[in-house]
Amino acid sequence: MSEVQALFSFRQPSEPDSTRWRAGGTLTSPTADYRVVDGELQLKGPSLFEGYLRDGGSEADAALTAANHDDGWFRTGDLAEAEGPRSFRFVTRLGDTMRLGGFLVAPAEIEAAILELAEIVAAQVVAVDLPAGSRPVAFVLMAAGETLDEHRVSTHCQATLAKFTSPVRVVALEAFPVTDGPNGVKIQRAQLRSQAKDLLGEQT
User: Fold this and answer.
1) Count of Cβ atoms closer than 10 Å to residue 86 Cβ
2) H-helix or E-strand containing 201?
3) Residue 172 burial (C-beta neighbours within 10 Å; 0-12, 13-18, 19+)
4) How many other C-beta atoms are found inside a 10 Å radius of the C-beta of residue 135?
5) Which of 92-101, 127-136, 192-201 has the lowest mean pLDDT?
6) Is 0.70 surpassed by the pTM of this model?
7) Which of 5, 21, 24, 98 sits CB 3.0–4.6 Å from 47 for a disulfide?
8) Has residue 99 got a pLDDT over 70?
9) pLDDT at 48 over 70
C-alpha cells in the first residue's frame, strides 16, 4: 500500500513453499515494527507516509490522518496473523472479513475448503446477521454437467472447518453477480448478501 511504500516486508527465498508464497513476510527495515490488534495489522517504520492530504493536495488532513493511527501505529485495515517477532501473514482486507462465533474469519478460508470438492469451480461466501449471530452462506458455480449436493458440501465443510464457520446453506448459481470497474470485474458481494438474507429469511 502507498502509505507504507513498497517492500515493507518480503519472503525469504530460503522459506519452504508452504510459507514462501504467503502475503506478508519479514520486515525489511531493522527499525520497522508491526503488531496485530484485534486482528488488524498495524505498522511503524521509516518509510511510512507523514499523513493524508486534503482534497486539492494543498495541506494535510489532520483528522483523517489521526483516524488511521493508533498511538503512533498506522492502522492498515488489513487482517493479519503474527508469525514471529519480525514476520506476519496478510490474510485479507478487514472489510472483507466476517465475524462468526466472535472471531474474524476471512471468506477465502471457507471458499478454499469448498473448492477442495472437484465438482465446484468457484465459491463466494457471505455472512448474514441473524438474531442468534452471523451465519455464513455459500454461493457456488458447478463444473459442467455437475449438480449441487448441498449435504455433501456441508459435510465436507464440517469435517474441515470450525463448526461456526461451516455454511448453513449452499446455493448453486449460473454466474455470480458482477460489475465492471477500473480494476476489472468485481463480484457484487452486497447482492449476494441480500440473496442470502432472503434465503435465510424464508426459513425463519
Assistant:
1) 14
2) helix 189-201
3) middle
4) 20
5) 92-101
6) no
7) 5
8) yes
9) yes
Counted residue by residue, the chain has a size of: 204
Grid cell, residue 60, equals 494535510
- Is 155 within the bounds of a domain? yes
Which pairs from 15-19 meet CB under 8 Å and 24+ separation? 19/83
Residue 169: what pLDDT?
95
Distance CA 100, CA 169 (A): 15
CATH number at residue 82: 2.30.38.10
* Mean pLDDT of all residues in 119-138: 91
Task: Among 95, 127, 148, give the residue marking a domain's end.
Answer: 95
Residue 51, domain extent? 9-95
pLDDT at residue 53, as a whole number: 87
pLDDT in tens, 55-72: 767 788 888 889 889 988
3 domain residue, yes or no: no
- Of 63, 95, 127, the one marking the end of a domain is 95
Give dist(CA 40, CA 137) in Å, integer.
Answer: 24
Percent share of the chain, pLDDT over 90:
44
Asked whether residue 204 carries a pLDDT value surpassing 70, the answer given is no
CA distances from 179 to 5, 62, 135, 186, 202 (A): 29, 34, 25, 5, 27
How many domains are contained in the chain? 2
Q: Looking at the chain, which runs of residues are DSSP E strands?
A: 9-10, 24-27, 33-37, 40-44, 69-70, 73-84, 87-93, 98-100, 103-105, 120-130, 133-142, 169-172, 178-181, 184-187
